[in-house]
Amino acid sequence: MKGLIMSSYYSSKKSLYTYLIVAIFASIIFAFINPIMTCFLPMLFLISPVTDNIKHEKDSKWMYYISTLPSGRKAYVNAYFTFYGILIFIGLIIGVISVSLVTQSMTMILLSIFIGIGASGTYAMMFPLTFKFGPENSNVILITTSIIVIILFFIVFYGAVFANLGSNTGTLNASAMGSSFLFVGIYAVIGLIFLIISYIASLSIFKKQEL
Predict the structure, then answer these.
(1) Mutual orientation of helices 50-59 and 138-156 as an angle, nearest 10°?
(2) Can you tell me the distance from the alpha carbon of 167 to that of 165, in angstroms, rounded to the nearest whole number?
(3) Dihedrals φ, ψ of 32, to 5°?
(4) Measured between alpha carbons, how far is residue 90 from residues 3, 20, 27 in Å?
(5) Where do the H-state alpha helices sit in the chain?
(6) How far lies 198's CA from each of 29, 175, 186, 192, 202, in Å?
(7) For residue 154, how many C-alpha atoms fall within 13 Å in the half-sphere facing its CB?
(8) So what's the pLDDT on residue 211?
(9) pTM for the full model?
């Protein structure tokens, strides 16, 4: 599986470094503008090239070779989810550092982490959808997944966080968001559940798929 992870890394190395630079700058900027999004933004940038990898591997017939190996399909799915998890973790570290330096608020850091985990977890649904409908439809799947993630994010942000501010100014006051922890925590748990379900569904779909 290590070889598969390294293959994913090297096939997207150039774009990953580009997105990494953009992610760092974006997280710093949003740490001032909207700290709650600071962890999710670098995650979003870093995981963007993942679906392109699947598409390229389909075109190069790499999937056909994988399917002939013992436990090849399971290792293939495991490698992608591991790679996805690594990118999420890197994005999380970048976000935590940025929001910590700018806000110096543990409340804001935790809220940002919960939002990041929830959003990145739900974003994992792109894997079973890509395996089901084919990498050739990855652009449509990516857009659809992004829309769903954004809708859920705004429901959480405006429904829970903004509602507790009691203001329309958009000023983020950490002390006013204490009552939002439960709702945002549930959102993080939902994200983890989505991630687990996406992994199980991806294994099931890819194992039965005729390449």
Answers:
(1) 160
(2) 5
(3) -85, -40
(4) 20, 9, 12
(5) 2-11, 13-33, 40-47, 50-59, 62-67, 72-103, 106-123, 126-133, 138-156, 162-165, 181-208
(6) 31, 35, 18, 10, 6
(7) 5
(8) 57
(9) 0.82
* Token representation of residue 75: 């290792």
Residue 147 tokens read as 């829309």
User: What is residue 139's predicted lDDT score, i.e. its pLDDT?
Assistant: 74
Cβ atoms of 138 and 129 within 8 Å: the answer is no
d(CA 164, CA 166): 5
Q: Which residues of the chain have pLDDT under 70?
A: 1, 3, 51-52, 54-71, 157-179, 210-211
pLDDT at residue 67 in the model: 64
CB neighbour list of residue 77: distance below 8 Å, 6 or more residues apart: 127, 199, 202, 203, 206
State the Cα–Cα distance between residues 56 and 13, nearest whole angstrom: 14
Q: How far apart are CA 102 and CA 84, in angstroms?
A: 27
d(CA 132, CA 206): 8
Decide: 41 and 74 in contact? Cβ < 8 Å: no
Q: How many CB atoms lie within 10 A of CB 135?
A: 19
